[in-house]
Amino acid sequence: MTSQPAPESTNPYGTGAQAAPQRRVRVPHLIAMKERGEKWAMLTAYDMYAAEIFDEAGIPVLLVGDSAGNNVYGFETTVPVTVDHLVPLCRAVTSAAKHAMVVADLPFGSYQASPQQALATATRFMKEGLAHAVKLEGGKAMVPEVELLVRAGIPVMGHIGFTPQSEHVLGGYKVQGRGAGAEKLLEDALALEAAGCFAIVMEMVPAPAAARVTEALRIPTIGIGAGPDCDAQVLVWQDLAGLRGGRAPRFVKKYADLRTALGNAAKEYAADVAAGTFPAQEHSFLE
Q1: Can you tell me which residues form the catalytic site (predicted)?
Q2: Which residue, 1, 194, 244, 251, has fewest beta-carbon neighbours within 10 Å?
Q3: Domains and CATH numbers, the chain
């Protein structure tokens, strides 16, 4: 009996949790993972080294978020972030990530005026930043923007629940989708799916409401403070790595303490320089 070759897996990261990435992650891979019930992780990335490390670790989706405002540029909110702030960061990430899908945030004021403005901004990210997809905030009101971008061939990730660009209207960082808001959350999600979004981020919403949306949608949901039933989860990498000081949001789990590690390394370096023990002979060029 002649053996037949095994069918190609639809999982771009192989069959095991530690399997090496084999090819670029695309929208159909993420849809297929939801259909199989496979959960996956998304992380932010704003530079080549983070992108390279996370890509090699098998993170399938990297987000060049407007959270760079808080984590790169030192702004208090994401509102001041511009397209010119993010395009160079996006290009650095896409140049380093060989397998992960790279999604670029459309910053505040760069897409809300009209679908045509959204298309012009998204086009910059695709052409100059080399992004593979874009993300925008908002529910049913963003349907015309999503439809035009998708029609133009640009994959779009939605973002509902707490939307940081609207924090002044929402009254600060508050959980969304409680009580009657749960119905609106579902309506927004269904509208974005119908408009062509390939995935939807849900931020700071009650876990039961997020679970209901996840069950209702064909496309993946990505939670951040939205409970365990979403198809995927996203964190800001500096939060995950413990780089940021101060109190972290409730939904953050700190997997490392890079702030302490880097601080100790800097102190040790400064002490070596002061003592004259660095640079040593092995760090110097000799004739």
Answers
A1: 203 (proton acceptor)
A2: 1
A3: 27-241 (3.20.20.60)
CA 3 to CA 52: how far, in whole Å?
38
Asked if 132 and 97 count as a contact pair (C-beta separation under 8 A), the reply is: no
Q: Tell me, yes or no, if the pTM score tops 0.85.
A: yes
CA distance 231 to 143: 22
The Cβ-side half-sphere exposure at 44, using a 13 Å CA radius, reads: 23
Helix (H) or strand (E) holding 137: none
Residue 201's DSSP bridge partners are: 159, 222
User: Three-state SS for 138?
Assistant: strand
Residue 67 assigned to a binding site: yes
Residues designated as active site:
203
The reply, when asked if residue 167 is annotated as ligand binding, is no
Contact present, 134 and 105 (Cβ < 8 Å)? yes
- Is the distance from CB of 198 to CB of 184 less than 8 angstroms? no
| CA 42/CA 54 separation, integer angstroms | 9
Whole-angstrom distance, CA of residue 256 vs CA of residue 101: 24
Q: With pLDDT > 90 as the criterion, what percentage of the chain qualifies? A: 83
Is 145 known as a binding-site position?
no
Q: How many Å apart are CA 136 and CA 114, to the nearest integer? A: 13
Q: Return phi, psi of residue 276, to 5°.
A: 80, 15
SS3 assignment, position 232: strand
pLDDT of residue 175: 83
Query: What is the rounded distance in angstroms from the CA atom of residue 108 to the CA atom of residue 85?
Result: 12
Q: Is residue 81 classed as helix, strand or coil in its secondary structure?
A: coil
Give the largest CA-CA distance in the chain: 77
47 is in an annotated binding site: no
pLDDT confidence bin for 154, thresholds 50/70/90: very high
Flag whether 135 is marked binding.
yes
Cα Rg for the chain, rounded, in angstroms?
Answer: 21
Judged by DSSP in three states, 38 sits in coil
